[in-house]
């Protein structure tokens, strides 16, 4: 009996080590090809294309370096940063006003913008216009993630329409923050509101927003924080949080010493193998738990916008995975489209109107990777939106 148990144990060890060796061999293979197709290739490709060095600094490193040269520069502060905050009786829906804001790096450089009087990504003079033709509401794509002006959606629309455009989008925003932003900043001069919905995470963001006591008050149509008159308070609160992000002088050494440990840990965890399995086999699971609440928010938004004598358009941005994962769910857009059109809101599918005609949709993403859009991508999609709105 003992001999049989010992033999069984030996077989199990052989099976275990065979599987482990196979998995780690595959991980080694993925790491080897990654040297030619991953981060190193991106750095090389960027240099060959621009003649410039890819900025490998973290956002905090870039902030610390730039702060030494210009004390009036800040990292872009997102409303989502206040979701768990208990430091204030207000919930800001914008960033620090009238300052240079560091946004993000996906195209090889850190994008920056000069924020307007309310902390949004606009030329400040847009607020002085007698008539505003377009207001954009949405998340990081609307915000203009990782590109400089004039390459974000709003800037492109200003250029091709020769009209006034306000961008009220912010990274991390979900439907409830977007509705709240409209309640706070929509004014009588606006002709059209373009709601830009991102399939990848908007309902997930809504799940987080519904846990915040101030944001849920916006479901009461009479509720407002009167934020337009509280910008000084918003600036102070945002700057306070940003100051907490500043790293100490040991950060560089900590990062340098931990870099090798980090790579070893990722290897031991079979990081690239798991990612490959996720891409090839797993079906993305879009949370639809809050769909009824999203419908309620959209109904309230439509009422708010129509009572303002403005027109609402709904733009659906597809998730990156739809172009690289054959198991990607196809019903998500159909579900959203059905109830949006059921509310008599014009529905603009960027997948249908733009990407479906492209041989390689990934070329509109930085280095074909899961990020936001390239400047060319922003331009072409903004052009598509303008064309559809004008039909």
Task: Summarize the structure in words.
About 3% of the residues have low confidence. The chain folds into 2 domains: 70 residues, no CATH class; 292 residues, SGNH hydrolase (Rossmann fold, 3-Layer(aba) Sandwich). By secondary structure, it is α/β, with parallel strands linked by helices. 47% of the residues lie in helices and 9% in strands. Strand 7, helix 13 and strand 8 form a beta-alpha-beta unit. The chain has 15 helices and 8 strands. The chain is globular. The strands form 2 sheets. A 5-stranded parallel beta sheet has the order 5-4-6-7-8, sandwiched between helices. A 3-stranded mixed beta sheet has the order 1-2-3, covered by helices on one side.
Radius of gyration from the alpha-carbon trace, in angstroms:
24 Å
CATH superfamily of the largest domain: SGNH hydrolase
Q: How many discrete structural domains? A: 2
* N to C succession of SSEs: HHHEEEEHHEHEHHHHHHEHEHH
Biggest sheet character: 5 strands, parallel
Return the CATH topology of the largest domain. Rossmann fold
CATH architecture of the largest domain: 3-Layer(aba) Sandwich
Query: Which structural class should the secondary elements be placed in?
Result: alpha/beta
